[in-house]
Amino acid sequence: MPRLMAFDNVTLDGRFAGPNGDLGWAHKDDPEWKAFVDSNASGDGRLVFGRVTYQMMASYWPTPLAHQTSPVVAERMSAMPKIVFSRTLSHTTWENTTLINDDLLSAVRRLKREPGEDMAILGSGSIVSQLTAARLIDEYQIVINPLVIGEGKALFEGVKDPVPLRLTKTRPFENGNVLLCYAPA
């Protein structure tokens, strides 16, 4: 059975995006962080996005600039199978992308029952919130960035009931980021 993992960068005050969707604060250009990102991108599996994150990723990763600045990540992002959930998109342009317009929860339950590779949600806070509330995420990889922005989108916005988790792994980085991995308790 495929597992579903969520990978998100958040600020210390729990924001995964700034007031206008800004993510510039999450991008670091130091050797240790770049090696971690390249290693993460080298894994197998399927990437999962909501429409907003998909469109942002599709506008950058297939470009020459992405291949010049982050060749490992750019190659893997394009090569990996991608699933985008959207009620408004009618087609996709990024290679290896499957568009699902069905109900998110039903579709994810079906994907988790079918044979296939594990899935990783990148960004896509609305998707993460909905799947968290439905208890469909098997692992959370949350990178805490040493920054308070005060305003923006909270990662778990809309989750009403407590979701007990247990810490499975931590990793601090010299740039101040801390990776925290959790599984459902």
Task: Determine the N-to-C terminus distance.
Answer: 19 Å
Q: Order of helices and strands, N to C? A: EEHEHHHEEHEHEEEE
Shape: globular
% residues in beta strands? 25-35%
Name of the top-level CATH class of the domain at 1-7 and 46-136: Alpha Beta
Which structural class fits the helix and strand makeup?
alpha/beta
Radius of gyration: 16 Å
List the total number of helices: 6
What would CATH call the homologous superfamily of the domain at 1-7 and 46-136?
Dihydrofolate Reductase, subunit A
Features:
single chain, alpha/beta, two-stranded antiparallel ribbon, globular, 185 residues, eight-stranded mixed beta sheet, Dihydrofolate Reductase, subunit A
Protein architecture, described:
By secondary structure, the chain is an alpha/beta fold. It has a domain of 98 residues: Dihydrofolate Reductase, subunit A. It is built from six helices and ten strands. The strands form two sheets. An eight-stranded mixed sheet has the order 5-4-3-6-1-7-10-9. It is globular and about 40 Å long. 22% of the residues are buried. The mean pLDDT is 93.
In short:
The protein has 185 residues and is an alpha/beta fold. The chain is built from 6 helices and 10 strands. The radius of gyration is 16 Å and the shape is globular.
